[in-house]
């Protein structure tokens, strides 16, 4: 059994409560429950976190260096601004999948660039909260491939 970190950036605590036309009706607690269910089906544990503070996300990435087998991250607005989160992810040697609920490429130009994508092994955007499930499946299959080596 491996541990997958699922990290969420600023304002995602409002998921399902505001702007449902962009982010859907599921709350972050719903997303966490879905992630937990899928990870356990796949034989993994998750640590699911959200913060509005950049340093907390960096601290969780550092924690994942000790015991994480993969990271699924929706850095939210930090996607487009944070070299510090990119630097932290660059110290993590296991799979990283970046998730965006909305299709950032269909939105304002400032959302088209992601610092995190410089490190991510894969990027999912515009598939709603289902993107988290697909990201967990991908991390799980990369963990399996690495275990066979
Ligand atoms: O599409 C995504 O998942 C984003 O990462 C969400 C970020 C945005 O800054 C990125 O460009 C794309 C915003 C998260 C804010 O979440 C809210 C959820 C519900 C209501 C209000 C904000």
Description:
- Catalyzes a trans-dehydration via an enolate intermediate.
- Pathway: Metabolic intermediate biosynthesis; chorismate biosynthesis; chorismate from D-erythrose 4-phosphate and phosphoenolpyruvate: step 3/7.
- GO terms for molecular function: 3-dehydroquinate dehydratase activity.
- It is a single chain.
- It contains five helices and five strands.
- It is an alpha/beta fold.
- It has a single domain (about 1-149), classed as 3-Layer(aba) Sandwich (Rossmann fold), CATH 3.40.50.
- α4 links the parallel β3 and β4.
- The longest helix is centred in the C-terminal third of the chain and has 19 residues, at about 130-149.
- The mean pLDDT is about 95.
- The structure holds ligand CA2.
- Ligand CA2 binds near residues 15 and 111.
What is the molecular shape? globular
**What is the total domain count?**
1
Low-confidence stretches: none
As laid out across the biggest beta sheet, the strand order is: 2-1-3-4-5
What is the terminal separation in angstroms?
A: 17 Å
- Give the count of helical stretches: 5
Structural class: alpha/beta
Strand percentage: 15-25%
Average of per-residue pLDDT values? 97
CATH architecture: 3-Layer(aba) Sandwich
| Number of DSSP strand runs | 5
What's the helix-strand series?
EHHEHEHEEH
Name of the CATH class: Alpha Beta
The value of Rg in angstroms is 14 Å
CATH topology: Rossmann fold
CATH superfamily: Dehydroquinase, class II
- The helicity comes to 25-40%
Pfam family, one: DHquinase_II
Subunit structure: Homododecamer.
Protein name: 3-dehydroquinate dehydratase
Catalytic activity: 3-dehydroquinate = 3-dehydroshikimate + H2O
């Amino acid at each position: 059994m491996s541990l997958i970190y699922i990290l969420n950036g600023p304002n995602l605590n409002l998921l399902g409560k505001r702007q449902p036309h962009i982010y859907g009706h599921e709350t972050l607690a719903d997303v966490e429950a879905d992630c937990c269910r899928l990870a356990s089906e796949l034989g993994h544990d998750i640590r699911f976190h959200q913060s509005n503070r950049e340093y907390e996300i960096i601290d969780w990435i550092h924690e994942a260096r000790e015991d994480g087998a993969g990271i699924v991250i929706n850095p939210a607005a930090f996607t487009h601004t944070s070299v510090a989160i990119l630097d932290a992810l660059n110290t993590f040697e296991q799979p990283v999948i970046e998730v965006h609920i909305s299709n950032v490429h269909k939105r304002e130009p400032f959302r088209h660039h992601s610092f995190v994508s410089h490190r991510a092994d894969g990027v999912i955007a515009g598939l709603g909260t289902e993107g988290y499930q697909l990201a967990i499946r991908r991390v799980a299959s990369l963990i399996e491939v690495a275990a066979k080596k």
